Amino acid sequence: MSDKRRIRLQRASIALAVLLVSSSGCTVTTHYKKPDVPVPEHFQAASTPEEPNLDEWWQRFADPELRQLVAKALQSNLDLRSAVSRIRQAREQEAIARAAELPSVGVSGAGVRLYAKSDPLAGITGGGAPASADSSTNLHIYALAVDASWEIDLFGGVRSAVEAAHAATEAQEWQLRDGEVSLSAEVANDYLALRALRARRAVMAGSIDHEAELLQLAMARASAGLANEVDVNQERTQLARDQAQLPQLDAQSGATTNALAVLLGEAPEAMQGELAAMPATTDTTPEVGEELPAGLPSDLLRRRPDVRAAERRLAAATDQVGVAVAKLYPRFDLIAAASLASSSLQNLLSVRNFAALGIGDVMWPVFAGGQLRANVRATEEERVQAYLAYQSSVLAALQDAETAIIRCTTEGRRLELLQGYVRAANSTSQIAADEYRNGIVDFTTVLSAADAELDARDALIQSRQALAQARISLYKALGGGWSESDSRLSARRN
Hints:
With 494 residues, this protein is an alpha+beta fold. It has 12 helices and 4 strands, in the order H-H-H-E-H-E-H-H-H-H-H-E-E-H-H-H.
């Protein structure tokens, strides 16, 4: 091939490449648009439209131990660490997808030494001669080559794959945030449940001490002939019944402590010693947290990490449809190769040893047995499923928020009523004991009053726990526990 002809061929190849690149905007894929999912203007349950501050909501419980536990869980929880690993994996998949936008270049080299006691070419032509020193062959060949290939993204398939990978990465990041929200709520729930169990045990222990005093009183009155053995046996029965409840409360406390340890990424027995120092008194009654406004339903679409993750998965599924559609159209590749070959290593880089090759390749899948169109339909169904999952996540978020608001309101009213119940039951129990000492009432009245006071105090503690957990549920339902400027997520990018 003459130099002029080779130059014309190179110019034509360059012109074809420029034409393909300039026309690459003719994509056949559609751009993703975030769906507009209708939500009510206000929650049905009573709430205020003021947007709450939900960053690190556990600070509202004014409990240093709770703060430490949540902070430790966010750093050490195994599920969160696994979620961080999935984010790193997704980012590498995104890098793989972006690599397809750039040319692929390879370099190869070779060195060949051929020695024979005869002429190999003579043997091929049938004229081989007997081996002798004069007919030996000693051949050296050195080669250096560079090859490059580039797929022209004429129909947007590569670009759609990159966007799908990026959306998948964002979905994993929001999944991590959702895990942090759920984890902080679980830690707070378990910790406040443990405090409630310790307080209930303290109330039960106080009731047992009171029962023991009543037993001594009944025995003294029986010895004086002012009471019978029935009173003594009734009090012994009551005392044994209350004592039998202590092991059950201890077992629940141990199970809750073990659950906390696992949330913190530790062995179950690790927290037993740390939390055993918590005093088992009525002072361990859980804090109920602060009342907060619920904001507007539209805030959920922005605040809830699980809703944001579902929306990003929908974006990824939509972009995958573009990848499948682009496969229906021709694929354009540019291939170039250049090489240097010489029998002498010293002269390898000489211009005379240079050779170059340029190829423009077009591949169009004319017939594939319906496979490609079936793949398009399959990815479209995946997009439909992702859209339905997104709608479902929005409805679940609205349900969680409505339910939590109702629970906070009703449990708050119940707590106020139980506080009055405890005051009345305590007064009744004291009056009944005094009147029994004076012989005014029988022992059954004293036992009933003591039972009522114990039940009232136990119900009050459980109501405080229920209100605290209802507010935790509201914090979680509103997507609390993360912020746009959260340094924990950005730190994990490194």
